[in-house]
Design brief:
Keywords: Iron, Metal-binding, Oxidoreductase. Belongs to the iron/ascorbate-dependent oxidoreductase family. One of its GO terms (molecular function) is oxidoreductase activity. With 343 residues, the chain is α+β, with helices and mostly antiparallel strands. Helices cover 25% and strands 20% of the residues. The protein has a single domain (9-341), classed as Jelly Rolls (Sandwich). The strands form 3 sheets. Strands 1-2-12-7-14-5-4-3 form an 8-stranded mixed sheet. It is globular. It binds 2-oxoglutaric acid (AKG) and fe (ii) ion (FE2). The site of 2-oxoglutaric acid has 12 residues, from strand 5, strand 7, strand 13 and strand 14.
């Protein structure tokens, strides 16, 4: 038997009839490595292609046009718009690191000029709306799997709620052709997500996304293979599938059962594609006022807004799965969340 270290694949097809099996599969993935691929999600491949085309169309505008809609404060999440070289929780690591454009469905202005990027708003909203039912399936199963009411997570993420904060982030990692960089450089440094879950799409053949399971210091053995805290496991795109990961609030709300693990995007190695890399992340976000504490009170009773302010302080410096990365990113503290006192 070939042991693969890829995250497990969970098939959502025939959802109603297979719900018990799907719940078991999702729970197994979310409680061991916190990453999984979703197939049988019902999204038309054309819709995903269209999202990538929209993404490329936007980023391929001249830099000046993109800078007209810079990242700005908007609501409590505080960020929408265009940013070059940095991502939230990430760091400037390389001139050719990453460009990002973030949108919220209910945003009234701040959309790219339709004369320059036709249909961007409509196509983006169509894409986001098509992801919501996939999220519903995943989050309702995880709630049931934990013994919570079906809507335990979903009531925090209802996209119709005016306080909903879920957003889409388009990424472009510009071509690295002809560039050189220090070994160990990342395009996104090791981080955990602040979303409940993230649905991620990466351009075919792209390399670089890697995860480090075992955030709490334990090696993990799953049916798919062994994941170790000190080892980065590649998480390449699986054609047709959505890559999903658990984020911090889901770990907190589940009292540590569902794991928000570290991941990073490293620079391509020699022989790997050096062309533009695109990815699209759908960040399913609790409302600002949601208290992200589980029934067993393993983590502090803080709201999502408080968590966003204190995330840095909650992380100790004990976790450094890759010493080189750790060295290169000293200003970001890694580590498992530890309780802090919040007034
Ligand atoms: O682009 C990717 O493959 C991963 C992006 C990511 O981890 C993030 O935006 O949080
Ligand atoms: Fe991430």
């Amino acid at each position: 038997m070939t042991v693969s270290n890829l995250p497990p694949v969970v098939d959502l097809s025939n959802f109603e009839e297979r719900k018990a099996q799907i719940t078991e599969d999702l729970m197994k993935a979310a409680t061991t490595i916190g990453f999984f691929y979703i197939k049988g999600h019902g999204l038309e491949p054309e819709l995903i292609d269209q999202a990538f085309a929209t993404n490329a169309q936007y980023f391929n505008q001249p830099e000046e046009a993109k800078l007209k809609l810079p990242r700005v404060d908007w609501g409590a999440r505080k960020l929408i718009g265009f940013e070059r070289n940095t991502v939230p929780g990430g760091s400037i690591v390389h001139e050719s690191s990453i460009q990002c454009f973030e949108v919220h469905e209910k945003m009234k202005s701040a959309w790219p000029d339709p004369a320059v990027v036709p249909g961007y708003r409509e196509k983006t909203i169509e894409f986001m709306q098509s992801l919501a039912p996939v999220v519903d399936k995943i989050l309702s199963c995880l709630a049931l799997g934990l013994g919570f009411p079906k809507d335990f997570f979903l009531e925090k993420t209802n996209v119709k709620d005016p306080d909903n904060h879920t957003f889409l982030q388009y990424h472009k990692y510009p071509s690295t052709d002809g560039l050189s960089w220090k070994e160990g450089t990342n395009r996104i440094t090791a981080h955990t997500d602040e979303s409940l879950i993230t649905l991620l799409f990466t351009s075919p053949n792209s390399t670089g996304l890697e995860l480090a399971a075992g955030r709490d210091g334990k090696a993990v053995n799953s049916e798919a293979g062994e994941y170790k805290v000190d080892r980065w496991t590649p998480c390449p795109p699986l054609p047709g599938a959505i890559t999903v990961n658990v984020g911090d609030p889901l770990q907190f709300l589940s009292d540590g059962k569902l794991l928000s693990n570290y991941h990073r995007v490293r620079m391509p190695r020699p022989g790997e594609p050096q062309d533009d890399r695109y990815s699209i992340g759908y960040f399913v976000w609790p409302r600002d006022y949601d208290v992200i504490q589980g029934p067993l009170k393993k983590y502090p009773a803080i709201t999502m807004a408080e968590f966003m302010k204190t995330k840095g302080a909650m992380y100790g410096a004990s976790f450094h799965p890759d010493p080189e990365v750790y060295e290169a990113n000293q200003h970001i503290a890694f580590g498992p969340p530890t309780p802090i006192a919040v007034e």
